[in-house]
Amino acid sequence: MYKKVMVAVDGSETANQALAEAENIANTYDAILCIAHAVQGDTEADKQAGTDMLEKAKSSAGTKKIETRLVQANIEYGLNGIAEAIADAAADWEADLLVVGTANRRGLERFFVGSVAEQLVAKVSASILLVRPQST
């Protein structure tokens, strides 16, 4: 069913849970897994931190067919810039499924802060799996 599974990571626990779910799906369908991270800053330090995050995620991934993508988000657009960068990466890579963690915000916090995951639902043509925080 799925041949190309992309997961967006940001270093959060929920993103790590999304990565684990994406790995399971990729392994189940013998799909290629692409781990993506959007960098907001334009400095070499920002890009290196993003690259380090991707390499850490890749090294912990339990799948054989794996790629990484570091994408540049427009910092002027805040969370919308991140969503736009991830959506563009998913479209460019022709992902069948995009897996993202969601912070599970409610009420006023959701209204003011918004949600990258929510914005991705509106921007991405591929199927999307939202992974909610798991209590331990």
From TrEMBL:
A Pfam family it matches: Usp
Matches recorded under InterPro entries: Rossmann-like_a/b/a_fold (IPR014729), Universal_stress_UspA (IPR006015), UspA (IPR006016)
Domain (UspA) ranges: 1-132
Gene3D superfamilies: HUPs (3.40.50.620)
Record SUPFAM superfamilies: Adenine nucleotide alpha hydrolases-like
Superkingdom of this protein's organism: Bacteria
CDD domains hit by this protein: USP-like
Record family assignment: Belongs to the universal stress protein A family.
Protein name: Nucleotide-binding universal stress protein, UspA family
